[in-house]
Specification:
de novo design (two linked rop proteins), 75% helix, 0% strand, membrane, MamQ_LemA, transmembrane, LemA family protein, LemA-like_dom_sf
């Protein structure tokens, strides 16, 4: 009788042990996926905050430009339309595309501004430009952090055997926040500093706030700090 019990007890113990190991592995992987996904969401929220800040600054910029160059309707409309697209975007991919459109529209606006010395010297305009350049810089930093988090997450769910468990648990690949070629190509804007390398960039991939502030300061003198 004891021999019979031992005969079926061993397989049962082995099966139970396998189940326990599988559950432990399942729980460990699940927790890792959740943590990685939460990190992606946190980094995305930082981008979203800065995109909203940028979105909120545009109306004041447009109104200021209108006051000096109202007949530049096409370029002003392109900025307003790009802002509307950003406001309607929902997914990271949609927001990345809309942000690229806005960057391109702002670049064209800067070219137009070159023809209006009085506008370039307007205190409100220079302060808005300062705030926008600071926002662009923060977007660039947040974008890099987000893409790093996405890369870590995507690698985690694609590695074997984790990819099998990820598929079973519904964890899917995340999209990067990527700029388009158009948004990375910015026209150079010479503000009369004599430096042909001076340009104002509205590019969420590579923005240098000191360059922007320095170029504007050459015309208007020290400007107010960027608001948070």
């Amino acid at each position: 009788m004891n021999s019979r019990r031992k005969g079926w007890l061993v397989p049962v113990v082995i099966i139970v042990a396998v189940i326990v190991i599988f559950i432990a592995m399942f729980a460990g992987k699940y927790n890792k996926y959740v943590t990685a996904e939460e990190n992606v969401d946190q980094q995305w929220s930082k981008i979203d905050v800065q995109l909203q800040r940028r979105y909120d600054l545009i109306p004041n910029l447009v109104n200021t430009v209108k006051g000096y160059a109202e007949h530049e309707k096409e370029v002003i409309k392109s900025v307003s339309d790009a802002r509307a697209a950003l406001g309607g975007a929902r997914t990271p991919a949609e927001k990345a595309d809309a942000d690229s459109q806005l960057s391109s529209a702002l670049s064209r606006l800067l070219v137009v501004v070159e023809n209006y010395p009085t506008l370039k010297a307007d205190t409100q305009f220079t302060q808005l430009m300062d705030e926008l350049s600071g926002t662009e810089n923060r977007i660039a930093v947040a974008r890099n952090d987000y893409n790093t988090a996405v890369a870590d997450y995507n690698k985690l769910i694609k590695r074997f055997p984790g990819n099998i468990l990820a598929g079973m648990m519904g964890f899917e690949k995340k999209a990067y926040f990527e700029t388009t070629t158009e948004s990375r190509t910015n026209p150079e804007v010479d503000f009369g500093t004599g430096n042909t390398n001076t340009s104002l960039h509205f590019d969420n991939e590579a923005v240098s706030a000191p360059v922007v502030v320095g170029a504007l300061t050459a015309i208007t003198g020290p400007m107010a700090g960027a608001s948070a």
